Amino acid sequence: MTSDTENDAPVVRTARRGTLLIWLLAAAMAGLAGLIAAPAVLDDPGSAAPDLRWFALLPLFALAEIVVVHLPTQRNAHGHTLREIPAVLGLTFLAPQQYVSVYVVGAVLGLVVAARMRGVKLAFNAAMFALEAALGAVTYHAILQGGDPLSPTGWLAVLVAVLVTDLMSAGAVTAGISLTEGVFDGEILREALRSGSVAAFINTCVALLVATLVLVQPSALPLLGVVVVLLVLAYRVYISLARGHARTRLLYRFVDRTSSARSVEEVVEVVLREAADLMYSERSYLVEVLDEQQVRYQAFSGDTVHAEVLELGAEPWWWRALDAGVAQHEAPRHGHDEAPEHPVAPALTSAPRDGLAAQLRGTGSARYLLVVCDRSFDQETFGDEDVQVFEALAAHAGVAIERARIVSDLQTLAGELKTARDTAVAVSEAKSMFLANMSHEVRTPLTTVLAAGELLNETPLDEDQLKLLGRMHRSGEMLLSLVENLLDFSRIDAGHATLHHAAFDLRAMVADVVDAHEPRAQAEGITLDCVVDPRVPGVVVGDRTRIVQVLTNLTGNALKFTPEGGRVWLDVRPVEDDGDGGPGVRFAVSDTGIGIDEDHQASIFTAFSQVDGSATRRYEGTGLGLAICKQLTELMGGVITVAGELGVGSTFEVRLPLVESEPTPPPGGGTTRSPSGRPPG
Fold this sequence. Notes:
681 residues; Heat Shock Protein 90; 14% strand; 3 domains; HisK_dim/P_dom; Beta-Lactamase; histidine kinase; EC 2.7.13.3; 6-stranded antiparallel sheet; alpha+beta
C-alpha cells in the first residue's frame, strides 16, 4: 500500500520548483523596473522625495487593493482592479519617481493589511507593481511631452499608460500562475484582457473625472464619493453574475464530458478534474467506503489522478457526509508565510484549510463520497452557493458513475454472450458435420446389408430363417430411414440444403404420394383417401422432391398413429379459401388416430420429440420426421401447423407459396381417389 506522502512526492517537487521560478520571475521584474526608473531618479534625486500629494495618494492605492482583495472574484481577481483611479491621479499630479514609489508602497500595504500576504507572493506582487508603475509612467510622459494633462493628448496618454499597465499585469499574473501549476493557462490571460480592459476603461474615466474636479472644482469632490461607492457595488453585482455564468458553463461542460466518457475510469477522472475546476479547489477525491475502517479512493492533485486503499483510524471530517448529505470544513486562515506558499496538499485523513464532501446518490449498494479540499485562492472559502452547486455536482456524478458502471457491465456481458454464441455456433457446426459424416459412413454398409438380405431372400430358406430375415429387413429399413432423416436434418440445420425450382404436375405428384402409401394402408386395414380441389392449378413451380418428402413424412406419420379401421385423407386446395390472401396451395393430412393434446402441439415439431414416452415405445421412430417437415416447409417459404384432439385425430396443414406455371393445362376437374370405393369422410 502506498501512503499519501509517497503519492504527494511529485507534488512537493513541482511546488518547490514553482516557488523557485516565481522568485526568479519576481527578481527579473524588479530588475527591469529599476532599469526603467533609474535614469529619472539619477537625473533628479530630489523629485523622488514624498510630499503632501504623495501621502494623500498612498491610502488611495492601499484602499483600492483592499477593496479588490475582498471582492468575490476568485481566481480572476487580477482581471478586476481599482488601482487605475489612484494611478491616473498619480500620473497627473506626481513626478514619475514619486508615482512609482507610491504605487508600490500603497498596493503592497493593502496586500499586507487585507490579505496578510508575505513571502514569495508578496515579493512577486511588489515586483509586478514596480514594473507596472515604471512602464505606465514612461508611457504616459512619453506621449504627454509636458503638455496639458486634461487635454485630449493627456487623456490619450492616460488611456495608453493604463492599457500598458493592464497588459503587464495580465502577463505577469498568467506567468506566475502557470509556473505555480506547471502548465500554461491561457484562459487566465483571456479573462484578464476581456473583463480587465473594460474595468480599466471605466476606472480610468472615473479617475479623469476626479482629476478634472481637483483642478477645476475641488469643492465637488465629495459628490464623487457616491460614484465610487456605486462603482464598487456594481463590481460586486457584475462579478457575482460572471461567477454564476462561469459555473453554469462549467456544469454544462461537466455533464457533457461525463456523458461522453466510455468507461468508469474515464468518468471518475472527468468527475475529479471537473470538480476541482468548478469548485476552484487544489485537490479532489472520490472515496469508496469499503467498511468502517477501510476506504478506496482516487485523488486528483497536481494534474494527476492516482488510486489507493487507505486504512482509517479516527473518523475524518468528510465521514459526516454519509449521514448529513453535505459536510463542510473550514480551518482558520492565519496569513501566508514562506512555508505554505505552495503547500503540499494534506493527506485525505488530515484536516485541510477548507473542504466540502457529499455522498453520491444512485450508486446502488456502493457508498461513494466526493471530496474537494483547499480553495485555490486566499481570502474566500466555500459559501452557501458553493454548497448548493457542489451538492448538484455530486448528484450528477453519482448518476454518471452508475451509468458508466452499467454500460461497462453490459459491454462485458455482451462480450461474454458473443463468445458463448461463437462457441455454440462452432459446436452446432461440429455437430452437423459429425451427423453428416456419420450418416454417410453408416448408410454405405447398411445399404450393403440390406442388399445382401434381398439376395439371401432369393435362396432356399426354412420358416425360421425367413422370419429372422424379415426382422432383419424391417430393422434395416428403419435404420436406413433414421440415417436418411439424420442426414437431412443435419444438412438443413447447417444451412446446406438447397431448393430446385421447376414446373411439375401437382395432381400427378399427389397421386404418386398416395400410391406409394396405399399398400401399407391396405395391409394395416386403414382407409387412405385423397381430394384435390379443381381450382388448384395443374402445373406449379416449386421443388417437387422436397414437397414429396414433406407429404410422405406426414402421410406415413398419420398411418403410423392410426389404428386398424381408421381413416387417413389428404386434402389439397388453394390458400385463398382460408382468407389468407396471396397465391399458394394448402395441403392437409388428417387422420382418426390417437390425436395430439394442446399441451404437446407446441413442441411436436421439435427435433427428437414425441407426444410422450409411451408413444415412443409403442410407435417406432425418433421424432425427426416432423422437425424435418417444419424445416423444409419454412425453407420453401411456407408454414406448417397442427390441430387435433387427443383420442379423436389430428390434422397437419402445410401452406406453400406455389405459383401456377404457364401455360396452364386445361382443367380436368377435381380428382378424388378412394381405394375403398367409399367417399372420404
